[in-house]
Design a protein that fits this description.
This protein is 58% helix and 7% strand. With 370 residues, the protein is of the alpha/beta class. The longest helix is centred in the C-terminal third of the chain and has 24 residues, at 275-298. The protein is globular and about 55 Å long.
Length: 370
């Protein structure tokens, strides 16, 4: 009764999860049949914990040939991608960046034996940045049954081969995650982070911390490490610790990011503790400016713009932002995105302080405007 692929989703629903069904199949000695069905049926996770459990239970022998993490937040996307890559410790890795990769290069790596021996792990970051024709061509490659290596990719948006990835492999999809679901998940992340640091934080206090600093995964990670350091040998993080260490930055950080990008030249002091949270906010503002220039240049009717822009950007505010974006020009926003990448890389190599890097970004961006 498990050897019909059309029945797999129904069996998963009855069993409660793919892993429980897999255990049940093993009891009946149908492991081979299960593996054939399981890897060919659509697999999409919308909960990070369930996705991580899948990786643990499938590693190392039952991992899929294809994995994709589709998450809007860059910090969370990088973390999820790193978790998947860590599940393939013995595979020689070949990395590609979406903005500068061609389908034929990725296909060559996927369909050919590695020069270093073993099956290659082909990693494509920021797949949404690939040219449309390259994405379409890659979808055809991924839909073939003759992949020699493993393929792992990340994206901040829905792309053409996402359905193929669900069919051929496993996808963690948080693109349509509701804000309240994300906040609940980040509360759980804070509790897990505390545990990994040998500390404890109550559920209601983790929720309070999140409302205080905002739903920013990078900033939350940083705050938990600061709190763990602050309490020293104590095991439990208390509310007084949060009030003392974690400043109310959610609204302030967003406003600062807007001022830096849209009103260049204004003197703004930046704290090192805000670095990683500020990076994602600055990138968001730059991408909005670049998109407004692209939409204006394409001559697309305004009523069709809403699917490309944040929901809060409409009406009078949209008109103001369009005028600002056209005045600053596309080069300014693209230069800003490139500079952000540069300072983020520098921050991970032990270069100058984060505050100095943010100052360098702001000054360089002002120079690009002139």
């Amino acid at each position: 009764q498990f050897d019909h692929r059309s029945n797999v989703r129904g069996q998963i629903a009855k069993a409660g999860s793919p892993q429980k069904l897999q255990s049940r199949v093993k009891i009946f000695s149908f492991t081979k049949i299960w593996q054939n069905c399981y890897l060919d049926e659509e697999m999409r996770y919308q909960k990070t914990q369930a996705f991580k459990k899948h990786l643990v239970s499938a590693s190392p022998e039952n991992l899929s040939r294809c994995y994709m993490v589709a998450i809007p937040d860059e910090y969370e996307r990088m973390q999820a991608l790193s978790t998947v890559i860590a599940s393939f410790p013995g595979c020689p890795r070949v990395s590609f960046e979406g903005s500068s990769s061609l389908c034929r290069e990725i296909a060559d790596a996927l369909l050919s034996p590695s020069l270093f021996g073993g099956e290659p792990l082909v990693v494509l970051e920021n797949a949404e940045k690939m040219a449309k024709k390259e994405i379409t061509a890659l979808a055809e490659v991924l839909d073939t049954p003759s992949l020699y290596g493993y393929f792992v990719t990340s994206s901040s948006a829905k792309i053409a081969f996402m359905a193929i990835m669900e069919k051929r492999g496993v996808v963690l999809d948080l693109l349509d995650e509701k804000p309240w679901d994300r906040e609940k998940r980040l509360v759980e992340v804070a509790i897990e982070k505390a545990a990994s640091l040998g500390k404890k934080i109550a559920l209601d206090l983790a929720s309070f911390l999140l409302t205080r600093i905002g739903a920013d995964a990078a900033l939350l990670d940083s705050e938990m490490e600061k709190l763990a350091c602050f309490i020293g040998e104590r095991m439990i993080i208390e509310k007084s610790d949060v009030l003392c260490i974690s400043q109310e930055t959610a609204v302030a950080s967003w406003e600062i990011a807007e001022k830096i990008i849209w009103t260049p030249g204004e003197v703004i002091s930046l704290e090192s503790s805000l670095f990683y949270g500020m990076i994602s906010l600055l990138r968001s503002q730059l991408e909005i400016g670049l998109k407004l220039n692209q939409l204006s240049g394409a001559g697309m009717p305004r009523e069709e713009w809403k699917s490309y822009l944040p929901r809060y950007l409409y009406g009078k505010k949209l008109e103001e932002k369009v005028l600002q974006a056209l005045r600053l020009k596309a080069f300014y926003f693209q230069k800003g995105i490139d500079l952000l990448f540069e300072i983020e890389v520098l921050s991970r190599t032990g270069a100058p302080s984060e505050a100095a890097l943010l100052d360098f970004f702001r000054i360089s961006l002002e120079y690009a405007r002139r």
